[in-house]
Specification:
Layout lengths: L3 H11 L16 E7 L10 E2 L2 E2 L2 H7 L4 E4 L2 E2 L6 H11 L9 H4 L8 H7 L3 E5 L9 H7 L4 E3 L11 E2 L2 E2 L1 H13 L5 E6 L24 H26 L6 E7 L9 H8 L6 H6 L5 E4 L8 E2 L3 E2 L3 H8 L22 E3 L5 E3 L2 E4 L2 E4 L13 H19 L6 E2 L4 E2 L1 H4 L1
Parallel strand pairs: 1-10, 1-11, 4-13, 5-14, 6-7, 6-10
Antiparallel strand pairs: 2-3, 4-12, 8-9, 11-12, 15-16, 16-17, 17-18, 19-20
This protein binds (2R)-2,3-dihydroxypropyl phosphate and manganese (II) ion.
Manganese (II) ion binds next to helix 3.
Length: about 425
Amino acid sequence: DGSELVEVNNYIRSNQATVNAEMFGKYKGRNVIAVSLESLQNFVINNEMNGEVITPFLNELTQDKDTYYFNNFYHQTGLGKTSDSEFIVENSLFGLGRGAVFFTHGGNKYNSMANSLSNNGYFTNVMHANNKSFWNRDMMYKSLNIDKFYDVNSYEIGEGEAVNWGMKDIPFMEQSADLMKDMPQPFYSRLITLTNHHPFRLDEEDKMIEEYNSNSGTLNRYFQTVRYMDEAVKKFFDQLKADGLYDNSIIVMYGDHYGISENHNKAMAMYLDKEEITPYDSALLQQVPLFIHIPGSGEGQVMDEVAGQIDLRPTILHLLGIETSKDLQLGADLFSPEHEDFVIFRDGRFVTDKYVYAGEVCYDRESGEPLDSIEPCQPYIDRASLELKNSDTIINGDLMRFYDEKTGNLKQSAVK
Ligand code: GP9
Ligand code: MN
């Protein structure tokens, strides 16, 4: 009957971060272009591989006056991989601990970012050149109230324009920008790239750097496909400028999840010049880059706030001047002075500015040394499990049905 919602709602209300008064609504009415960068981890940014730069364009953005680059930002996905990242970003809730919420709860009621933007006059869409039913997207997108899904049928894949899992990122982003020209504005487009996906295969002509030389072909090729994706993003920016879409948009780009699993620890240790990859290292390797690029802002900087994908919904909506104080969401605005340095992973691990909790060990964040006692981590362990539980309760009970997002009130059936 929804009565579980009372407790969850109280928790959310009492832990809400305020907005950043200076930034709230500063970019009202702009288009939002969100780009999910497949399997992109943060360790390649501003780094080299055998003397070669891996992400020249993204590196430039980290220094750019119009870009907020978050270098302490984490994915929070589970088995649902890309689809989990989509779920988290749209709903500011966690995916599930088992399976993919896109499959198991694709018919729930949600108050997604798309839904909120739709209520504020936006045309909302997802662009991804894959079969529409992959990850049950066609069904879930209806529940997320996404107006249109530009799936593989919206793209023309010419000779030599597909590799690995499907359409190459360069033509994909080029055609996506073309499609945007005809969209009613303001629009919210979420693009999902694909080329930098395991097993990281490329055609010869798309290889811009050499392979790495570890015992892992996967890691060796990863640098090349990342380099290719960087090129695709660069061309995409150029095209948005040429098409006149650039100045009136906010471009948010983030890695969806890790690309290199723990099966490649030996090779990763070699690359990172470490003796071994500890659970502490593995946790920090879940960092993915986040870029919030705001043409004309002039206030870009490197942000070291500890944060995660769950924070994107409130952050983006607030920049556009859309309130979320009545929404059932678990993340917090990254620009809020009250945003806390605390990110929870789906499996219960977490990172703060002082601690890393992984493998049931509490590590000192700075030194990577295990602490003698679990004590300093305990309050966070408890909160992590409560927040994950709250998220699961909302999803498993389909509790949004009992919530009136317009008023922030629980419906009668839930209060009784
Ligand atoms: C498939 C793409 C990749 O459409 O999103 O999915 P992943 O395997 O990364 O979850
Ligand atoms: Mn993915």
